[in-house]
Amino acid sequence: MIKKGIRRQIVLHYFFVVFLALLLVEIIFLFAIRSYYYDTIYRHIELHADYVADLSQPLRMPGQSLNANLINNFKIERTLLEVLDEQGNVIINSTGFESDRKIQTSDVAQALAGGNGRWVGKQPETGQQVMAISKKLSGIGGDNIYILRYVTSLDVVNDRLFYITLLSISVGAAVLTIVLIFSIGLANSIVRPLNEITEVSAQMAEGKFDVRIRGNHPHELGELAATLNYMAQEVVHTNQVKDDFISSISHELRTPLTSIKGWSETLNSGGYDPEETKIGMQIISKETDRLIGLVEEILDFSKLQSNEMKLVMGTVDLRELLQEIMLNVWAKAEMKKIKLNLDAEEQPYLVHGDGNRLKQVFLNIVDNAIKFSSENSYIFISLRKADQQIAVSVQDTGIGISEENLQKVRDRFFQVDHQNGGTGLGLTISQQFVERHGGEMLMDSVLGQGTTVTVKLPALEEPGVPSDFVEAETKAGAHK
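The line above is the sequence of histidine kinase; the predicted structure tokens follow.
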């Protein structure tokens, strides 16, 4: 007995469908065979009866008596020939014995109606299965009416049909046995890999993400196995990235905290001149701002992941926004003697968005360009409007990104160069903000030659709309 489960369901369903199909085919086949045998007998006797009707002229002559020898000339081997009157009384038969019984079967009535009558049933006297075929014969002028009736036994035919039925049932049973064996094998081929996948999944649920589903499984099972293997691989990768992030952020937090603590203790001890105190306070302020930036970046990412980030939408001029950003990073660029160039026509470049978040996006992109550019290099910022879109491109001539890292650089916590610090969330957050504004962020880079980051945003249709025309708070993802 097959225990409950998918294997049992597959076997039962497959077996049941084939059983119904075989049953239907056998019923149709046996019905067709029976009809073929019965129709063959009927057509043979019918043709003979028609032949007799054409040649039985003596039966049609007025006043002519029926001759037994004449009747015997028209009988068929193993078939009883009877001649009846209109009332169904047997006048004469091919056996030569007189019969006083009255025939009232349906074939007689059909013959009297003008057609060839056919009846299949059991003889009252013997209980034998027979077929009777009747045909009306009329004398000249219609004064004498006779019924020519042939009766033949169906025992031989029924025995043959019974044998064919047993044979078809045996063949059907053999087919069902083969189907049962095949369905069990088919069920095992499905259930066995499912059991393996279930076992591996249970181990993954326990945290063993180094296990993998082995073997090349076909079709959907193969896709399921590949998906689970990929999931485990991604979990391992995510855990590694998370560990790297924790290690990196711990270092990033420790460095400013160490500076703040050191200078705080130094200043608290007293005895320093005002100039040295000023330097210490500047370092504390700078490191505090750095800490605030790190914490805000982590908070922004957390809010984006939980869809709690709110956007204050309005009209933003990207040209003015980029000019403001260039002023913000000017001092940092000057330290590395990097030249910032803005290429934009003297016209408004208006978009519908959150000015602070868009500033955060472009500030992060430009800051990265400065961070990864060498001294005495250039950063080109361009603004273009086409096809109802505004494209902002930031191109640097820095270290560039390899093709392998370019596919991962926007993944959360990923950092191309861990020595430059940061959380590895800047580009992830920037991309999500761009997508929330209905835009897209593209990156193109060649290792050792530089990187180009392009942000495309939908242009505002009506430049004259005031900045407070539509000011609403929407949850993050509402404009994705």
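Note on the example: Confidence is low (pLDDT under 50) at residues 59-64, 463-480. The first strand starts at residue 79 and ends at 84.
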